């Protein structure tokens, strides 16, 4: 397989809570005023990403996996996931609150949906003043059955909220109640799963006056207690990576590039994804260069030996898989 910085065409999703930041800030091409998600790299059925540049332009993500297997994904990823891409990579714009929700773990997802669970993380790229997110219950000893009786008068007593700002990062394991709040633009990395149990949707209705379905019974079964908010404690170091999340499903580092840098991946048995969350950078593999700007994503095949980065100032999320304790 020829290694080069591979880009994919974004898959844009209209959402009841979406806005225009994906278009206005991240330059996604859409005339819609309620684009909530840009699926950057997806192996979800009926939402398979297509290569938009270079030698493999016009090929699907699944085409690359089938043709190149471990050269593309890494041997351990092929052994673990077969020909299924293990991550779903997104940018999200919440003009209004997302529903308060929870995702099943692997065991519950396999039993009820024949799927992997959904552990995820967020990196806050932009936020309005006083923007908040929901992270867990206010009281971990609270009877989970209260999730079946939430309304506008008691919602603030049930869920824990946190104010967020640019650069904040949060780990959201399966089973944790959560919601991105109004005014937040975020990068999201997650297991390949589109299973969501909606707990509360702020009593809103669609254009036809209908409320979206809740999944209370499943949410109660899926919800777990966690002692921490999951906020990452990291220090940026120019031209070095700082770890944000290190879990069995993915590792995510933040890489601040201010000079010409070369990174060696010969000992990593995994593809690597870079999400540009600030500025722009030139990314070069074997004399093939692509520019990645804020809001763009590239994938580096697993057979890549080294990558050179050149930037006057950018921040990239570096994502790969190397734990394999599934």
UniProtKB/TrEMBL annotation:
Q: How is the cofactor bound?
A: Binds 1 zinc ion per subunit.
This protein's name: Phosphohexomutase
Give the Mannose-6-phosphate isomerase cupin domain ranges.
242-313
Quote the catalytic residue positions.
Answer: 198
Tell me if Membrane is a UniProt keyword of this record: no
User: Which cofactors does this protein require?
Assistant: Zn(2+)
Q: CDD domains, per this entry?
A: cupin_PMI_type_I_N_bac
- Report if keyword NAD is assigned: no
Which keywords does this chain's UniProt record carry?
Isomerase, Metal-binding, Zinc
Q: Which residues form a coiled coil?
A: none
